[in-house]
Amino acid sequence: MALGKLCNREPVNTLEQLQELLNDKGGKQYYEEMSDLDVDQALLWNTIQKTIKAKSRIKTWLEICAHCGMCADSCFLYLANNKDPEQVPSYKIQSTLGEIVKRKGKVDNAFMQKVMDTAWSKCTCCNRCGLYCPFGIDMGVMFSYLRGLCFQQGFIPWEMKIGSGMHRVFRAQMDVTTEDWVETCEWMAEEWEEDWPGLEIPVDKENADILYTVNAREPKHYPEDLAEAAVLFHLAGENWTVPSEGWEETSLAMFAGDWEGCKLQVQSVYDAMKRLNPKRMVVTECGHAYRATVIEGPYWAGLKDGQTPIPSLHYVEWVAEALRTGKLKIDPAKRIKEPVTYQDSCNYIRNAGLADCAREIMSYIAEDFREMTPNREHNFCCGGGGGFNGIGRYRKERNIGLKVKCDQILATGAKLVISPCHNCWDAIRDLEEVFEVGIRWSFLKPLLLKMVIVPDHLKPSEEE
Ranges for the Cysteine-rich domain (predicted)? Predict the structure, then answer.
């Protein structure tokens, strides 16, 4: 069997392996090797037989699809690509996973490359199609399963192989070590304490009320997000902490279909919960982080009740609660005056039902809130979820997909989009670069800091 040095069926488990992939700029050697990668047909069919059993939902879904096409208009990629029939969700899954099952795993390299391209460039696993299928068939769930088969065979995009390896090596989607993380917490606390008397970012504080966990991109690229979270917890009088290990919520392993990597990642967070014994966890403004750790994570970790070891909240839940209870109070004069809209993240709105929290927040902070159409759980994917944002091979396809979200935003008449999700934030940033329509975007934290009422004893030094 032809296995490349970089493109193969072996997960990345060492820093050396990871560095070799990173050195292959753009994945040039990786994709060349992929063209010679054999399909282990016996392994593929054996895996399918073990996982798609007689009464499994995936087997049932493959068999009961009526090819009615009602899922078509639910898919933003179908709409963005001039209603191309090959972008209909049912077609996409039947022509890939359905064919593999029909052929009992007897597929070749060319077919598996087609499957890979479909699984990562024609579906973001947003799960919107499941809302409109009369049988409740969810292509997002099936494409996640299909990605797992691709990962096992080595047919995954270069960036996803790297992302999976990052989680296995660093327990984070980026090369942020425990030392890097703790030093960043100390640095941000020191930098911001002068302006916010008494500000701390407590590390490994036991029995806190809140365990705060983040997206690795924050300490890596914009640590001010961590500082902003610290200030808001400080103003709210929260007893909180961050863990020195198990601080990373995201899971590119989930995007890659690396289920073992998913378990390793989420277990690190759960271990932090058990070690520090907080009352509950708050996840930063990231949709897939919440989904990976709170919705899917318990099952990866073998927790049969489907619940995290302690109650776990997305950041919008904490903000809504803090505003509702008066822990944070908004200065009416500083509310957002201009038209503003809200991007409903697939992962914490459609898949976790937190639309009401988002609207509650908007009622406090915005005077002219305008809903997208459709909205809430019916909102379209931002266009960059499921790993789509970060795969260079599919940048053209991703950019085409952004058109639907761009049109949705412009139809509201708002140029400011509040987007408490990293992938959504990135996609909206990128659609502005592509279409240049004057859209601005923001997380909640910096907006809240501009409008919260600060008690006299907590005011920044220059205001005293």
Answer: 340-424
Domain extent listing, the chain: 39-156, 169-324, 329-451
Beta strands, E only, 240-355: 240-241, 280-283, 312-314, 340-342
What number does CATH give the domain 329-451? 3.40.50
For domain 39-156, give its CATH number from 1.10.3470, 1.10.357, 1.10.1060, 2.60.40.
1.10.1060
* Cis status, amide bond into 374, omega within 30 of 0: yes
Inter-residue contact 217 to 174 (CB < 8 Å): yes
User: Looking at the chain, how many residues does it have?
Assistant: 464
Which tens digits make up the pLDDT trace of 75-90? Answer: 999 999 999 999 999 9
Residues whose CB is less than 8 angstroms from the CB of residue 175 and which lie 6 or more positions away in sequence, other chains included: 18, 166, 169
Residue identified by tokens 């200030």 is 231
Q: What is the largest CA-CA distance in the chain?
A: 74
Q: How many of the other CB atoms lie within 10 Å of CB of 420?
A: 28
Do 329-451 and 39-156 fall under one CATH topology?
A: no
